[in-house]
Design goal:
CATH architecture: 3-Layer(aba) Sandwich
Strand order of the largest sheet: 3-1-4-5
Helix content: 40-55%
CATH superfamily: Rhodanese-like domain
Distance between the termini: 69 Å
Order of helices and strands: HHEHEEHHEHEHE
CATH class: Alpha Beta
Number of domains: 1
CATH topology: Oxidized Rhodanese, domain 1
Oligomer: single chain
Shape: globular
Strand content: 5-15%
Length: about 130
Amino acid sequence: MLKIMVMGVISLLSVSWLPLAELQHTEDSLKTVKERIAEKKAILVDVRELVEWNDGHIEGAVHLPWRDLQDKFDEKKLREKLPKDIIVYTHCMVGYRAIRAGKIIEKYGYDVRPLKPGYQELLEAGFKNEKK
């Protein structure tokens, strides 16, 4: 009986260590992203650092630096920046921080779709540059 109980506990522990489904880059085309943003069905979130943002960013994007998301954000602050009922496209320079930030935002129940294309590729696809 003890052996069966130990085996059951080991089984439960091993399942709890399985990784949850990983957030991946979206397969949505940049054309689709652009259309959804224009229709107010989505928002673009720039997760690059402030220095990068100040060098230029996509018009209408929300700035939520990856580092700040790790350290300083909670659900209340996130809701002040992002509406809950739309798609959140995260972007950075090459896609790595977009996924990492997306994982944090997703924990709060958002539909997050990280972009693989970075800032420069968004500009080349016709997204407008805004520099403050």
